[in-house]
Amino acid sequence: xxxxxxxxxxxxxxxPERIRAVARRVAAARARGDDLVVVVSAMGxxxxxxLALACQVTASDRPGGSHPREMDMLxxxxxxxxxxxxxxxxxxxxxxxxxxxxxxxxxxTDGTHTAARIVQVRADRVKExxxxxxxxxxxxxxxxxRAKEITTLGRGGSDTTAVALAAALKADRCEIxxxxxxxxxxxxxxxxxxxxxxxxxxVEMLELASSGAQVMHARAVEIGARFGVDIRVxxxxxxxxxxxxxxxTLITPTPRxxxxxxxxxxxxxxxxxKLILNGLPAGLRSATTVLGALxxxxxxxxxxxxxxxxxxxVQIHLTIQAEALPHARRVAEExxxxxxxxxxxTTREELSRIALVGTGMGGRPGVYxxxxxxLLAEDVEVHAVSxxxxxxxxxxxxxxxxxxLRALHAAFLDSRPADAAAVVPAGA
Length: 428
Prior knowledge:
- Helix content is 35%, strand content 26%.
- With 428 residues, the chain is α/β, with parallel strands linked by helices.
């Protein structure tokens, strides 16, 4: 008997038919003897519809900014609908089930409306109902503050709920059911050769999630890494194998691989921009002052490079989110003036961020050369580069993003030996 936390996303519970399919899967697992906690998202596009209603009532495209508490009250209704329907369907499928809101499950958060963070999961009532042999259904994406206010966890909140519950309950497994087969080496909609990664480390998955991979949310992976929770990502649209062979992708601290891969996966995100400050006085003071001014204005900088542009003068390149560019440019121009710059502040928009991620690239010669050769062959220009111990991040024109993804995937992942990603048999 195992304690399993399962999470079902919006597409997995988008209709009565899909809810009944989830109920059959849960009831079958319960019949095998597993104890189950099931976390559910809102049905299909319910959250989008609720947001649209709020916009109509407030005549605003961002009602959460003016009414954050009421937005939390509104949006949590979607998950409450799902949890009740799933509990009913599980009972109809022959297993005892009981649904809880985030507050009833004692998911305690800070007081930040629309983007709260979990500070504690008590889950006493969850444990009591599990001991009675019931399946416990928990509404994802929500919690309650110490001031007894309903809160929501922001984007990816149901994933975060599931992994936090798995950590608090010391569950044997945490399964994230989605509408895709697992974590892919790249977005399969854009890279035809992309394939499912059998196992990936928490740190690699965290880097991919932070770089644009949308199957798992970074906060959920972060909790999994901190508490050592193994997370399996798999499709709810595929029946479980009769022979018990694992499907999807296992996110785990130490993946079992025949060899350490140079690159495990590639992710990308659009909406990047570049800010170029020309003719600043050379020295650390310029970069420090610019970064401080942007930080004080609430603007986050992703990459920074510096180059000489004349005697005693430097050019500083900064990459930021495109939506912050107008404000960032005003701050940069004022800061450059104060510093005595003799050049203008210029910008470049329509850029995309591509990250190559893999724990095996550290200290491996030729990684940069292979990446740049692949992009050069496709005539893709690179506007900025940054690195970490497990990633290389490149800034490319958005219009060439797909070409760059395919070229890099072909260079690092298409030619991988057939057994390079194989899982080492247990006990080997």
